Amino acid sequence: MLFNSWIFLLGFLPVTLAGFFLLGRRSPFMSAAWLAGASLFFYGWWDLRYVPLLLASICFNYGCSTWLASGPAWRRKAVLTAAVCANLALLGYYKYAGFLVASVAHLLAQPLPVLQVILPVGISFFTFTQIAFLVDTYRGQVRERRFVHYLLFVTYFPHLIAGPVLHHKEMMPQFADRKVFRLSAENMAVGASIFLIGLAKKVLLADNLAPFAGALFNQPGEPSLLIAWSGVLAYAFQLYFDFSGYSDMAIGLSRLFGVKLPLNFDSPYKAANIAQFWRRWHMTLSRFLRDYLYIPLGGNRHGGARRYLNLMITMVLGGLWHGAGWNFLIWGFLHGVFLGIHGAWSSLRLSSQSTAWKIFATALTFVAVCTAWVFFRAPDLASALAILGGLYGGNGLALPDALARHLAPVQPLLVAMNVSFYLGGGAAFIDSWGWIGLAALLAFGCPNTQQIMRLVEPALDAKPASSRMAWRPTRYWAAAMAGLALASMLSLNRPAEFLYFQF
Length: 503
Prior knowledge:
By secondary structure, the protein is mostly helical.
């Protein structure tokens, strides 16, 4: 069931909201149980066969958490180690077993039985969420005695499929407040606004950019420079608006229930360096990798060389978390290299605070990120290398004939510059760059969702309460949201999955 589908918007969501608030009048426990049950139904809609797997994982980790809450230190540490290993083994089997068998077969040049393992949707997210809970319980930071509340924490449908990766303390304490179980016009207005902005990002921007990205990555051939960049930029902005749209929709949906989720996306393409990019892109995953991998490895506490090694290990494993394949490993490796270069450059203290430098640094960071996206999106290494060849001029510069006719007077000069013409594709070429230009304008030149909502929503503002602007609905705001909703609804004839569902 997709957030951007009619069955969700007109069926599942209103029924779940109605049950939650009606039961909340009588019993917060029953209301929480209803929401947990609805979340399981939401998950089962994808594939009912994997609901027992999800429940088994939840029961196992809940049982382990009760052992971690008390007892001698040696036993608690042993339980934590065994539980984390069990979670990683489950994730490893479903996500990486086929890749490992294929890699071993290729290395040995011997045919091996092919493992046909269907990846359970959301397994990476509910596994990481529970690992974080176990570690936090071991550290004495959280404890959950009520199974229904733990069930709700893991299965909560706004974040179950594609994040954000939550800490228990960020969500469940809110259910101790009875105000959560009371229908609030403010929560409805704020939640619906954030949801509609996210829906528009998905169906009006990301889905319209998808065909231009697919045209390159599905059949790369030997793309020329402009064709390669149009496809790569189309994918970069498709992924940007697809994932930020999902994150907005998850936060907005949760707010309808009176629950505030952490931000997960903060204009990452505006980052002036790669470290800043990772503080803005998939923020909760970056936090997880930092807190539960990079810092336990030693972080930056053991000198520069060890720090760069820890960064590389973290990013390579982060790449593999996204998918089982050499492309994802190379993508993570590249980001490890980028972070290492940034660290070395920062130590020289040569950066400037001038506007020109910030523009250059932002552009350079964006180009580096787009280069790495080639491996993230390409179906195999051969395709990725072919696209990279075109991206940096290896196949020359080609123009569609629609443009070539207008440039006929200067054709000899263009030929001398290795600019070639090809037949057809002029309209698609112009359309692709039109959509890319619009996407770039919105991504680089406009405020993001939380910046927009700070004008109307104190909870998303980091300023002191005295300086916040109180939320006030207006007719203009309502009209803008109605227009956005109408435009989005008219585009729901073919709902497309979110890109991060595959991870």
